[in-house]
């Protein structure tokens, strides 16, 4: 059985040494400007090469994160980043945006691609789609249980990677817009401000009273004691979260993982003291999702970490001997020659000028002992052959030690030589510059059929309803109705969704709205339009979806107006319409854990509630289809600015509204009237960091 890889986070050069010296099999680090931890000490072209030299010399792989969404004006810089990664000889790129994946395919097609957890892949069909697109590994969503991980791993045909230790985002990765919409710092752009760690209280509170409790803050994940089971089901890589943490934290987690992989006990208290939020949780992998998963970083936690740092530094103080080598020492009357060989076929030589003296006894065992002393180097001796021509010969220990040092130093230099991936000259296509279309249409999305007002049929281009509502749509309305597929499909929901698609594809509906990479497989050959869960932020990604069958594409509401105007996909020479949200309470988070479980269990819940933040704002929470959605209390409204954004259609996104409220808002949008009440323009004129 292949050993599960221990993959460690690196956010600085010291963290790199800590990860490697403590025993990680691979590291992942960010390339400056395009990775999901812009606050970490990321690497540029030169420092990346040095990191790869250091790691490859020691048998450690390097995965480079280029895993943010990208805007049109950044595509040229992204191409340069891809070239730099390829020229470094790094082992893989982790990517979220399909523009990154496509540029790798053009520039360095042999460079392996790993699908980031930001791609929100949590089902078999999603992993299969990545395989078809040329990815070699998928980083699975953190919310999966072990049976769900096993099902995907055994059937997807590519490697799977799972988070085994570190922070848990409350929201499904790639689907969180809270930091962007509350503070202008996008998690999808690597700038998350961590608002879920601030007070959000699920208890009912009077108007104006701020929330004090942390009901969106999960404890850190830790499933290291289950590594042997994950290895047994075929998971390729065990990933430690934490590029923003410390070298000591990395060393503690790697050391624990090495023990866990072998089914050995490890010091859980030491690991907890390195960093925790009042302990750990394994709720997702265990399939036990409840209120015990929540926790905060306390002053006591911080004090324990401070006291533990000296002990943790011992874990990476010395180089770990890990690269197997073989020695052959040849001694003859004129001198000595030492050959060292590694498993990759690299060879290095050292020659001695000590005059061998005749030995009275066989010195082989003593020579082997001297050669085996490789402590403090990356090398571990696997085999030692000693050949003596005309001997036995005596050689001083100091001379043998010098031979060993010289040979290993020469081998280290050979192993440090970079092996770049072949690079083709390729650049992103020139960006189109759209003009405002003469007519813009309106689409209206509703959570449930009872919200749909009578006048919607004649006043909108398409209705959009969840596929679970399909049976409620009258036949005469179906040719104008798109069926929305669930953004998140945990457990049996993917198979249930596939059955619903099969049951509705000949029922007269206009098509399906897709918002996850898995939906491309589920709806292949059927009419599709793109929802904002696809996170389309640039022309290359939009064109990818147009090429894969989407007849229209919704642009992520994080994108600024000037970037929206550069997104204009085509198919067979004809424009593919693009759209934006023109009204709606933005779904800021979609979660598998439920914040309402901080105050009661599911048996005593009506599937609705609210969270009150530290400023006394109330955020609606709704439960359905196995997930919770947290909405922005203030809606986006662009109905009075019909010419502000260069797109073909707008979407009125109804979730919390009554039928009467929806009708009034649709009327306002049609006549371009100002919004009555508090609203936001979202990020259309501000953009995000």
UniProtKB/TrEMBL annotation:
Superkingdom classification of source = Bacteria
Q: Which PANTHER family match?
A: 23S RRNA 5-HYDROXYCYTIDINE C2501 SYNTHASE, PEPTIDASE U32 FAMILY
Q: Which InterPro entries match?
A: Pept_U32_collagenase, Peptidase_U32, RNA/ubiquinone_mod_enzymes
Q: Where is the Peptidase U32 collagenase domain?
A: 301-415
The protein here is known as: U32 family peptidase
Annotated Polar residues bias: 364-375
- Region of interest (Disordered), ranges: 351-375
């Amino acid at each position: 059985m292949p050993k599960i890889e221990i993959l460690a986070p690196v956010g600085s050069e010291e963290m790199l040494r800590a990860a490697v010296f403590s025993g990680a099999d691979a590291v992942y680090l960010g390339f400056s400007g395009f990775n999901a931890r812009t606050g970490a000490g990321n690497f540029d072209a030169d420092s990346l090469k040095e990191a790869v030299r250091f790691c490859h010399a020691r048998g450690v792989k390097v995965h480079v994160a280029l895993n943010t969404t990208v805007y049109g004006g950044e595509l040229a810089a992204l191409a340069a980043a891809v070239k730099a990664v390829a020229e470094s000889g790094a082992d893989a790129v982790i990517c979220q945006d399909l523009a990154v994946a496509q540029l790798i395919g053009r520039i360095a097609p042999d460079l392996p691609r790993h699908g980031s957890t930001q791609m929100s892949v949590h089902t078999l069909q999603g992993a299969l789609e990545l395989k078809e697109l040329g990815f070699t590994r998928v980083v699975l969503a953190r919310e999966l249980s072990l049976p769900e991980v096993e099902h995907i791993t055994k059937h997807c045909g590519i490697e799977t990677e799972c988070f085994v230790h570190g922070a848990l985002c409350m929201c499904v990765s790639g689907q969180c817009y809270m930091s962007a919409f509350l503070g202008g710092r996008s998690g999808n752009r690597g700038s998350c401000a961590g608002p879920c760690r601030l007070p959000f209280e699920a208890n009912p509170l009077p108007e104006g009273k701020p929330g004090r409790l942390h009901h969106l803050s999960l404890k850190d994940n830790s499933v290291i004691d289950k590594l042997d089971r994950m290895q047994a089901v075929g998971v390729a890589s065990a990933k430690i979260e934490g590029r923003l943490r410390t070298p000591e934290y990395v060393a503690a987690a790697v050391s624990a993982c090495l023990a866990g992989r072998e089914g050995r006990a490890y010091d859980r208290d030491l690991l907890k003291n390195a960093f925790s939020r009042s302990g750990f949780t394994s709720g997702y992998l265990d399939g036990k999702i409840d209120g015990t998963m929540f926790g905060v970083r306390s002053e006591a936690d911080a004090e324990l970490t401070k006291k533990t740092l000296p002990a943790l530094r011992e874990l990476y103080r010395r180089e770990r001997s890990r690269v197997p080598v073989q020695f052959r020492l040849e001694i003859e009357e004129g001198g000595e020659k030492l050959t060292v060989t590694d498993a990759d076929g690299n060879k290095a030589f050292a020659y001695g000028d000590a005059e061998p003296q005749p030995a009275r006894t066989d010195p082989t065992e003593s020579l082997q002992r001297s050669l085996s002393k490789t402590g403090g180097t990356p090398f571990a001796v696997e085999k030692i052959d000693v050949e003596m021509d005309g001997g036995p010969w005596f050689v001083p220990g100091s001379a043998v030690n010098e031979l060993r040092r010289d040979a290993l130093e020469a081998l280290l230099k050979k192993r440090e030589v970079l092996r770049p991936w072949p690079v083709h000259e390729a650049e992103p296509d020139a960006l189109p510059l759209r003009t405002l279309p003469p007519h813009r249409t309106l689409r209206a999305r509703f959570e449930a059929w009872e919200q749909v007002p009578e006048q919607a049929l004649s006043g909108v281009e398409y209705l959009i309803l969840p596929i679970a509502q399909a049976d409620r749509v009258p036949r005469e309305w179906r040719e104008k109705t798109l069926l929305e597929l669930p953004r998140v499909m945990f457990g049996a929901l993917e198979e249930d969704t596939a059955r619903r698609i099969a049951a509705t594809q000949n029922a007269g509906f206009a098509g399906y709205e897709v918002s996850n990479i898995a939906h491309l497989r589920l709806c292949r050959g059927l009419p599709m339009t793109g929802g904002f869960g696809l996170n389309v932020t640039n022309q290359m990604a939009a064109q990818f979806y147009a090429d894969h069958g989407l007849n229209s594409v919704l642009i992520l509401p994080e994108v600024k107006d000037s970037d929206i105007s550069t997104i204009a996909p085509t198919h067979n020479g004809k424009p593919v319409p693009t759209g934006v949200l023109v009204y709606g309470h933005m779904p800021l988070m979609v979660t598998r854990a439920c914040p309402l479980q901080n105050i009661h269990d599911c048996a005593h819940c009506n599937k609705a509630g609210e969270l009150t933040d530290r400023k006394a704002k109330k955020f609606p929470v709704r439960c359905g289809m196995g997930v919770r959605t947290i909405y922005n209390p203030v809606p986006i409204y662009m109905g009075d600015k019909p010419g502000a954004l260069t797109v073909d259609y707008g979407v009125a996104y109804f979730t919390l509204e009554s039928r009467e409220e929806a009708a009034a808002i649709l009327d306002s949008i049609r006549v371009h009237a100002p919004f009555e009440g508090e609203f936001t323009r979202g990020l259309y004129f501000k953009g995000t960091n």
